[in-house]
Amino acid sequence: QAKRLGRNTFRFYSATMHEKIRERRLIEKELRQAIEENQLSLVYQPKADMKGQQILGLEALVRWNHPELGWISPGTFIPIAEETGLIHPLGKWLLHSVCVQNRSWQEKGLPPIPMAVNLSPYEIRQEKIVEHVQEVLAETGLEPQWLELEITEGSLLEDSFATLKTLEQLKSLGIRIAIDDFGTGYSSLAYINRFPIDALKIDKSFVDKIVLGAKDAKLVDAIIGIANIMDLTVIAEGVEKEEQLKLLESFGCHQFQGYFFSRPLPADAMEEMLRQHNNKPLTGS
Ligand code: C2E
Ligand code: MG
Ligand code: MG
Ligand code: MG
């Protein structure tokens, strides 16, 4: 195609490719430094009950504010971290920071809640992951039931035997395991049932669709119904509207995460919310 359209087009394409490669190299170099120099931070998003009266858990999400480039989204740098192997030191830092934060809130007398960390498929496929989690729990003194690992549905599909063994070992440490972005990976609940999991997070794309069409609503209704039979905690992600909340609740979903209740917040703001909304409703949006 480029050839047919002439030289200029070709040059245009090759320049963008070049730029992309340069950008990747830059991010790789800067990310390595960011991990070492503590430029990364965490924000926390609550998982609430229907009325927003109780915060049932938190999800930690990584943020990167580069001194010159500004905010870089995890959607940009996580894939680069995965390709370059930087995901391993990054993941260790994340896990450690979340356990330290959870422990510190418990020591301040806040009600203990499970805190979730996202685990990249590259981390699950690394043999040492079980050891790492065990080490972090020992170092920080956090009881395992307050740590949850979110793994995407997609990461169960590859190398499933090894993944099953790893998840069984992680589970035996006493931590919780949740399937993230469920509905995007073309796997069935019957397939997922083979893995030792505690919770299922319904992907935002489904949460968006339930208010648009009866067919999608029925599908999500069925998924939640089966997940309940399987004794899984069901969490809806990306809930933005009250209408979605009401429908999901009528389908049997009991935990909700999304901008309707709260955006992800930095640690100090989250701490304030945990204090204030300890049994008082969140305001909603
Ligand atoms: P995820 O784990 O599915 O996280 C949910 C994403 O949806 C987050 O984006 C969150 O800010 C956003 N979100 C939550 N509620 C709403 C809502 O109501 N509306 C909309 N439009 N968005 C909402 P974020 O923080 O940009 O993270 C994007 C993805 O990057 C995450 O998807 C996760 O896959 C990855 N990620 C983020 N932090 C980490 C991390 O610490 N480690 C790893 N391995 N991946 C991470
Ligand atoms: Mg997640
Ligand atoms: Mg998710
Ligand atoms: Mg998602």
UniProtKB/TrEMBL annotation:
This is Diguanylate cyclase GGDEF domain protein. It comes from the Bacteria. The chain holds residues 437 to 721 of 721 of the full protein. It comes from Heliorestis convoluta. Residues 24-278 form the EAL domain.
